[in-house]
Amino acid sequence: MRLPSLLLALLLTACTSAPLPPPKDDSLYRGLGELPGITRIVEGMLLNAARNPRITHHFDDIDIERLRDKLVEQICVEAGGPCEYTGDSMEESHKGLNIDRGDFNALVEDLIDAMEAEGVAVPVQNRLLARLAPMREQIIER
């Protein structure tokens, strides 16, 4: 089931650039397992990224605990949860990191793998990917 989610993520990132307003309901948040589930997904994604030779170098000199915490906040907000994102903008966070499409797609794959490991249903995965897709243009270096 990995390919449909990845294909959807790539299609969404190719055609979406404006941030979406916060969702009005928390069904996505609940579908991801609320805060404990989101935390496990983020931790799984970061572990996957640490083992991914395509992108692990991007995580060499960062505070991984802070990154985890900010990603949990961000996904919680994007999923309609009761969190507040307290991190920097996507542009500021990724400035000078020279992240390209391949790097971005590799992390999307790592996220999908983490969601699958948590047993997140494909429609729920696709909803989260759709929420995150507009950030692509703010992350990739031009």
- At the first level of CATH, the class is Mainly Alpha
Overall tally of structural domains: 1
CATH architecture: Orthogonal Bundle
Mean pLDDT across residues: 83
Shape: globular
Strand content: under 5%
| Total helical elements | 8
Distance between the termini: 32 Å
Q: So, the CATH homologous superfamily?
A: Globins
Class by alpha and beta content: mainly alpha
Largest sheet: none
Q: Which regions are unreliable across 5 or more consecutive residues at pLDDT < 50?
A: 7-17
Q: Any idea what the radius of gyration is?
A: 14 Å
* Secondary structure: number of strands: 0
Explain what the structure shows:
The protein has 142 residues and is mostly helical. The protein has one domain (2-139): Globins (Globin-like, Orthogonal Bundle). It is 62% helix and 0% strand. Helix 1 packs antiparallel against helix 6, helix 1 (2-15) runs parallel beside helix 7 (122-132) and helix 3 packs across helix 6 (101-117). The chain is globular and about 35 Å long. The N and C termini lie far apart (32 Å). Residues 7-17 have low confidence and may be disordered.
Question: Any descriptors?
Answer:
Globin-like; 62% helix; 142 residues; mainly alpha; globular
Structure summary:
The chain is mainly alpha-helical. The protein has 8 helices and no strands.
SSE blueprint:
Elements: H1 2-15, H2 27-31, H3 34-50, H4 64-78, H5 90-94, H6 101-117, H7 122-132, H8 136-139
